[in-house]
Write a structure and sequence with these properties.
The complex is a heterodimer. Chain A is mainly β. Chain A contains no helices and 12 strands. Chain A has strands spanning about 5, 10-15, 20, 25, 30-40, 45-50, 55-60, 65-70, 75-80, 85-95, 105, 110-115. In chain A, the strands form 3 sheets. In chain A, strands 2, 5, 6, 10, 11 and 12 form a 6-stranded mixed β-sheet that branches. Chain B is mainly β. Chain B contains no helices and 11 strands. The termini of chain B are far apart. In chain B, about 40% of the residues are buried. The model of chain B has no long low-confidence stretch (mean pLDDT about 95). Classes of the chains: A mainly beta, B mainly beta. The interface between A and B is medium-sized, with 24 and 28 residues.
């Protein structure tokens, strides 16, 4: 069965610090990978996605992620965080061979950025 | 605003009751997904409909059921409610299914007392 593991449950950073959130998945076939963000009181929004091609994916708001197939990882990065990045971040996998679009989410990482 | 609407925003009910959550997908989207977000289980996929037909099932209890209507809106029915059903229920939509990103609605917060 597919699963997603996010290593950090709660991360606290100061503004301008660099961010890296870990995400590992378990699935043997072709996968599509996503990072979603949930700002306080809001719905999930897509930050970036990987379907194929360049394993370094750039998303919105200066976020990027790197797909490393050999490590089953899809870590999220941002060189310099802002207070407005305070939110919960979810990594998700969509199994390409299952012919459905269901997303399997990790448990989420709460990011708190101190001004 | 993702274009996906959900009603109601909040729902408070008692154990043993039945409720219906409603979702309208983005214009043009054919797939609707339901997810449950709770503190202990995280975000879990419940069920997917594509153009009126069930496409995939996840960890959905037998007390729960869903359908997608000809106008593509969807309803999630939860019956014989238990305290543990208290959660945030999200609906998402996409154009088709796989290889399409999903757009999430604002969610319905269900509280079972």
């Amino acid at each position: 069965a597919q699963s997603v593991s996010q290593h950090n449950h709660h991360v606290i950073l100061s503004e301008a610090a660099s961010l890296e959130l870990g995400c590992n998945y378990s699935y043997g076939g072709t996968v599509n990978l996503f990072w979603y963000v949930q700002y306080p009181g809001q719905h999930l929004q897509l930050l970036l996605k990987y379907f194929s091609g360049d394993p370094l994916v750039k998303g919105i708001k200066g976020f990027e992620a790197e797909f490393i197939k050999s490590k089953f990882s899809f870590n999220l990065r941002k060189p310099s965080v802002q207070w407005s990045d305070t939110a919960e971040y979810f990594c998700a996998v969509m199994g390409g061979s299952s012919n459905t679009g269901k997303l399997i989410f990790g448990q989420g990482t709460t990011l708190q950025v101190k001004p | 605003d993702s274009g996906v609407t959900q009603t109601p925003k909040h729902l408070i009910t008692a154990t043993g009751q039945r409720v219906t959550l409603r979702c309208s997908p983005r214009s043009g989207d054919l797939s609707v997904y339901w997810y449950q977000q709770s503190l202990d289980q995280g975000l879990q996929f419940l069920i997917q409909y594509y153009n009126g037909e069930e496409r995939a099932k996840g960890n959905i209890l037998e007390r729960f059921s869903a359908q997608q209507f000809p106008d593509l809106h969807s309803e999630l029915n939860l019956s014989s409610l238990e305290l543990g059903d208290s959660a945030l229920y999200f609906c998402a939509s996409s154009f088709r299914g796989e290889y399409n990103e999903q757009f999430f609605g604002p969610g319905t917060r269900l509280t079972v007392l």
